[in-house]
Each structure stands twice: as C-alpha cells, then as structure tokens.
Amino acid sequence: MSQRKLVKYISLIIVSVLSISVFTACTLGGESPEQSLANALNAFKNYDEEVAKRYGVYEDLTNLEANEKESSSNGKKMGKLICKNLDFKIKSSSIDGDTATVKTEITSIDMKLIMGEYMSKAMELAMANTFTMEEPQMSEEELNKKTDQIFVDMLSRKDNKKVTVTVDVKLNKNEDYWVIDIDKDLEDALFGGAVTFKDELKESGWNISE
C-alpha cells in the first residue's frame, strides 16, 4: 500500500469513528432535560439500535458501518468498542423557557491517544511491507485487514487511558420533546478528543474528508 493510500485509509477510519456521533437526540414529552440526555447517552453507550430509534439518539447506527465498507469489515465492532467506554455524570441543569442547559461530566476512551498510536503502527506496517525482501508482499486487502485488526486490538485493551471533560449540553424544546444541540465540544467529549485530533491533522496538511 502506498503512503497516499494509507493516508486515505487512516482518514476513513477517523471519519468513520466520528460519523456515529451525528445525531438529533430527542425524547418524548414528559421527561426533564436531564432524563432526556441520560436516555440518549445510555442508548449511545449501549449501541442500542432500538432505543436509538425510539429516542432519535443517532439517525442511523449504520452510518459508521457504511463508511467502514470502504476501509473495514469491522465497523460495528469498532463502534461498539468505542461507545461502551462512555460514562457520564449529570451535574446540574437549568431551564429558560424552551431552552435548557445540562452540565455533564463525560468520560470516554482517549481516542486522540489511540489514533496517534494507530497511525504510527499502521505507517510502520505499510513501510515494512513496501521495503520487505520477502515475496510476495501483502496485498492492499491483506494490509487493510491487518491495520483493521491493529485498531480493533487497541480499542479492546482493558487498560486504555480515559479522559474526562465537563460539557454544557444545550437542549431545545420542540413542541413536546427536547432536542440536543450537538456542538463540537460535545462531539469531542463523546469521542475522547477525536474531533480535536482530526482538526490537528487537517491543520498539518492531511486531507481528511468530512
């Protein structure tokens, strides 16, 4: 695999990791903003498609899997490994008319650290394959499978570092339900700094697709 193709592959992994977080979280009437947020985040954590559909936590859990078709056969496995590491504590909330703010402490796997380590290992594997004296070299498909497995193995580690941040989650009341206003801070918190990592790559010249 050429360096350009590997960069594209890693870019797909990064975008796939983030794509699962595109959601319009809403709940049925009768729940407080705190309850709405807790239900949404629990559905996210449990990768629960049925609850997700009920609450609209994410428009389609298969977004991740669809992106992964170009880069991975383990899309759902990766998604579950990332989501299950989410923990949260609701600290306080306030309501002002049809808007609410729920201060929430979110703990998630340190994806910024994992993505940096993954890129290093994937590049190392690709370079070793390129300059190996052994024949035949791994095909692109074989190399993709190996780099996939590297990522899955890293996500599966029991001792992965976690990061905790406090976010003011905004919600808007729409008739009889609350809708979470997803912003960059919340997305970054849910994915342990992956948004920041992606932005830093873009700033350094990487071509990361949106």
Q: Can you tell me about this structure?
A:
With 210 residues, the protein is α+β, with helices and mostly antiparallel strands. It has one domain (3-203). It has 9 helices and 4 strands; from the N terminus they run αααααββααββαα. The protein has helices at residues 3-19, 33-46, 49-55, 62-68, 75-83, 111-130, 140-156, 184-190, 194-203, and strands at 87-96, 99-109, 162-174, 177-181. A 4-stranded antiparallel beta sheet has the order 1-2-3-4. Helix 1 (3-19) runs antiparallel to helix 4 and helix 2 (33-46) runs antiparallel to helix 3 (49-55). It starts with a helix and ends in a 7-residue tail after the last helix. 37% of the residues are buried. Mean pLDDT is 76; it is low at 1-6 and 59-72.
Which key terms come to mind for this protein?
210 residues; alpha+beta; 4-stranded antiparallel β-sheet; 51% helix; elongated; disordered N terminus
- The sequence of SSEs as H and E is HHHHHEEHHEEHH
Specify the oligomeric state. Answer: single chain
Radius of gyration: 19 Å
How helix-rich are the residues, as a percent range? Answer: 40-55%
The structural class is alpha+beta
Number of helices: 9
Mean pLDDT: 76
| Uncertain residue segments | 1-6, 59-72
Count of beta strands: 4
β-sheet strand percentage = 15-25%
The biggest beta sheet reads: 4 strands, antiparallel
Instruction: Going across the biggest sheet, name each strand in turn.
Output: 1-2-3-4
Structure in a nutshell:
With 210 residues, this protein is an alpha+beta fold. Helices cover 51% and strands 19% of the residues. The radius of gyration is 19 Å and the shape is elongated.
